[in-house]
Specification:
alpha/beta, BirA Bifunctional Protein, domain 2, 8-stranded mixed beta sheet, 3 helices, 24% helix
Length: 206
Amino acid sequence: MRKPVKTEWLGRVSYDAGLLLQSTLVDLKAADPTAEDRLFLLEHDPVYTVGRSISPLDPEFSGLPYPILQINRGGKVTFHGPGQLVGYPVLDLRTRGQDLHRHLRLLEEGLVELAQRVGVKAETRDGLTGVWCGERKLASIGVGVRRWVTMHGFALNVSGALDGFDHITPCGLMGVKVTSLEREGAVGLDVEKAAELAAQIFRGVL
């Protein structure tokens, strides 16, 4: 039976602290099917992350202005930093059809709705996980699963500088431009306000 999702706004936390929080809850939920499903909403100090298939020691990552970490999610390299809403759903897929692809599509669906609520036209693209405004990438998604419990999730660019992306090939997509809700016309929106919208939307979507 699908359990309701409890959402929590954590504010600014380090990447390591966010990862420890997820890992602890994943282990708890894997052992105890009655443990609640959670969605952590937060923003990170500047950091680059790469998925399982890439080494952070690759020469292309030399000289980056912020630390780079390898983590247990799919996808390639991305940037996290202030002005970006990060969402970590820790959900038991054993109660949700054990369907990881559906989980990814629901994350996309929720982010598209969030963008629409603040007046930004966003969409998905066939064959590319994430959310887009035309040719510009608005949100990245990368998920890990341990014993059918999810971790990691989405990164939605809300406001502020995007210069951290200038030093990488975001998600391995050559020539892709990165955008934010602010750049696409959203007014008066910060990460905490975006988190409030995300909490409303994802409680109904996930």
